[in-house]
């Protein structure tokens, strides 16, 4: 496919949070930004008049846009930070320095300390975050300090040094902020229990802490200390909005390549995420045209080799959705849950959005191309002699044998043509006989089309298995249309397709667009038929209840139903209530009918 123009790219951007990257005509990244809604944010650059001269110059230089879709605005903020530090775009001023967002570290040591840091050292401890909000970070640290007395000193608290009495308690101990582990006044087991609880808080499990805060806030409010209560309320709000873990920056996942694939009948779309030191630093989606019905496995292996060469990747490990053969020098991981699975899901999300955008771009550039592709696909999948530009689908509707009706829905070029839909009331069949009803409806439909010299469909779909299909074929034989119009039956159980004189059904790929269109036709025929059946049943119910009363006409029935809302309420109404609505004479007829 050709590279879409900037104008078309702007029309097909998703309404999702993410990061956008602007490229100039030489292919260099000139700006990276984050957005809560990518479509609105990026379009604002091209629809507003900018006062800032630098922004006006930036907009003039934009030749291409790339974007990465993420789950939350916080993730977008973190990813923006990663990409700016990696690529140092010319028109970004903020975030270019070596400062990163802060983390909370639980130090890897005896009697661990808990503190904030902007630098991560491998093996230095367990890191939680990063935090895009300093307020959230300080609220959590204040919460931890208030709940659990921890040491703040940097002493090396080995057992031998404590036993030797090398250290003395400091002011923090006397203030009650520390329990004096340095002098052996607190056991390691008790201290580690506190650390275990702190880890749960940092992971977002602070139900007990929130309960304590709310209790404290209510107490302040009762004591008329509203300023203190407001401070506690603000802390509660911060904690309730706290996000414990980010997929975008995760120190547990370092220096890996992530690949996922989304495919259809014609193309495969492979997304690539590159992680370095726990942070996503690159995203790219490759579109591959299928030539010989390649499997997803074959396409993914081909794409991984090409992408790794293009971006000079030296990662020794890749995450993929299924087993692939890349040679013995690369470790292949297939994540099933946890952080690794989240990052793979993010990659797949970007592949899906890329595919959707390409379809939208095709429809804008060449509206007929999408329909032509589907028609050609349906002709091949269903083994037809011509493209099914005009399809008709039949469905019977009768519930407990009452009011049998049928529906015919029409699709033209793969889309519903509602003006051509038709309802049928079954006239020649007594009782619930679906086979005979189908025979009658098909005969009536195509006899009329032939009599009026209307165009016939290229494909007829019968909602039902072999029995329904045989009934429809009888009508086509009577009209001399057997062999002139293709006809298939679709059975609901396994979505198998039956052809005339072929006992073995055809099973289409569950992902195929051909099956999706056939299912859409079947569902639409069912909906349209049920709607007509309900209307007819409701009308007949009204007729039997009220219009059979001698001397009561249709207008009186409407007046009664408008007022009483149902026939049952009319039957239970008192005489004076009826008189107030329809007068003395007619009220007596209705009342006597129900009460004699």
Automatic annotation (TrEMBL):
The keyword Ribonucleoprotein does not apply. Interacts with UvrB in an incision complex. Pfam families: GIY-YIG, HHH_5, UvrC_RNaseH, UvrC_RNaseH_dom. GO terms for cellular component: cytoplasm; excinuclease repair complex. The UvrABC repair system catalyzes the recognition and processing of DNA lesions. UvrC both incises the 5' and 3' sides of the lesion. The N-terminal half is responsible for the 3' incision and the C-terminal half is responsible for the 5' incision. One of its GO terms (biological process) is nucleotide-excision repair. Gene3D superfamilies: 5' to 3' exonuclease, C-terminal subdomain (1.10.150.20), GIY-YIG endonuclease (3.40.1440.10), UvrC, RNAse H endonuclease domain (3.30.420.340). It is found in: Cytoplasm. The keyword Coiled coil applies. Residues 207-242 form the UVR domain. Residues 561-588 form a coiled coil. Residues 262-476 form the UvrC family homology region profile domain. It comes from Seonamhaeicola aphaedonensis. This is UvrABC system protein C. GO terms for molecular function: DNA binding; excinuclease ABC activity. Keywords: Coiled coil, Cytoplasm, DNA damage, DNA excision, DNA repair, Excision nuclease, SOS response. Residues 15-93 form the GIY-YIG domain. Belongs to the UvrC family.
């Amino acid at each position: 496919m050709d590279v879409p123009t900037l104008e078309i790219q702007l029309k097909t951007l998703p309404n999702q949070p993410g990061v956008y990257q602007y490229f100039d005509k030489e292919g260099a990244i000139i700006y990276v930004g984050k957005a809560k809604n990518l479509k609105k944010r990026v379009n604002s650059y091209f629809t507003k008049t900018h006062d800032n001269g630098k922004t006006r110059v930036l907009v003039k230089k934009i030749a291409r846009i790339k974007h990465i879709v993420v789950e939350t605005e916080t993730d977008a903020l973190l990813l923006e930070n990663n990409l700016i530090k990696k690529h140092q775009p010319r028109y970004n001023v903020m975030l270019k320095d070596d400062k990163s967002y802060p983390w909370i570290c639980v130090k890897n040591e005896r009697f661990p300390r808990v503190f904030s840091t902007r630098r991560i050292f491998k093996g230095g401890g367990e890191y939680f975050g990063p935090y895009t909000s300093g307020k959230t970070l300080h609220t959590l640290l204040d919460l931890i300090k208030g709940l659990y007395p921890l040491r703040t000193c940097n002493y090396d608290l080995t057992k031998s040094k404590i036993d030797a009495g090398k250290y003395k308690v400091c002011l923090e101990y006397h203030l009650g902020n520390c329990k004096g582990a340095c002098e052996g006044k607190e056991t390691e087991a008790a201290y580690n229990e506190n650390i275990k609880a702190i880890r749960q808080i940092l992971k977002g499990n602070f139900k007990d802490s929130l309960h304590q805060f709310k209790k404290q806030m209510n107490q302040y409010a009762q004591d008329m200390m509203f300023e203190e209560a407001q401070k506690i309320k603000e802390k509660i709000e911060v904690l309730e909005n706290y996000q414990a873990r980010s997929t975008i920056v995760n120190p547990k996942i370092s220096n890996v390549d992530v690949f996922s694939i989304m495919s259809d009948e014609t193309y495969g779309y492979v997304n690539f995420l590159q992680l370095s030191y726990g942070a996503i630093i690159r995203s790219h989606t490759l579109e591959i045209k299928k030539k010989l019905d390649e499997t997803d496995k074959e396409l993914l292996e081909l794409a991984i080799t090409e992408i790794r060469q293009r971006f000079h990747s030296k990662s020794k490990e890749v995450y993929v959705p299924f087993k692939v053969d890349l040679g013995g020098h690369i470790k292949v991981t297939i994540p099933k849950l946890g952080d690794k699975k989240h990052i793979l899901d993010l990659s797949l999300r970007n592949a899906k959005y890329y595919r959707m955008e390409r379809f939208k771009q095709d429809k804008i550039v060449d509206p007929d191309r999408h329909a032509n592709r589907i028609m050609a696909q349906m002709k091949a999948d269903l083994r037809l002699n011509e493209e099914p530009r005009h399809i008709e689908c039949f469905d019977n509707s009768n519930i407990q044998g009452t009011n049998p009706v049928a529906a015919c829905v029409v699709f033209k070029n793969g889309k519903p043509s509602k003006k051509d839909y038709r309802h049928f009331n079954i006239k020649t069949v007594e009782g619930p006989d679906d086979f005979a009803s189908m025979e009658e409806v098909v005969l009536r439909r195509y006899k009329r089309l032939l009599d009026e010299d209307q165009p016939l469909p290229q494909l007829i779909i019968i909602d039902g298995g072999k029995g329904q299909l045989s009934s429809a074929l009888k009508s086509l034989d009577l009209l001399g249309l057997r062999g002139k119009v293709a006809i298939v039956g679709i059975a609901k159980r396994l979505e198998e397709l039956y052809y005339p004189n072929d006992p073995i059904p055809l099973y289409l790929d569950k992902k195929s667009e051909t099956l999706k269109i056939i299912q859409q036709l079947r569902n639409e025929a069912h909906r349209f038929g049920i709607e007509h059946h309900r209307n007819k049943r409701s009308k007949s119910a009204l007729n039997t209840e009220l219009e059979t009363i001698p001397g009561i006409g249709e207008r009186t029935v409407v007046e009664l139903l408008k007022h009483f809302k149902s026939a049952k309420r009319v039957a239970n109404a008192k005489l004076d209530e009826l008189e107030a609505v329809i007068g003395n004479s007619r009220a007596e007829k209705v009342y006597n009918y129900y009460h004699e």
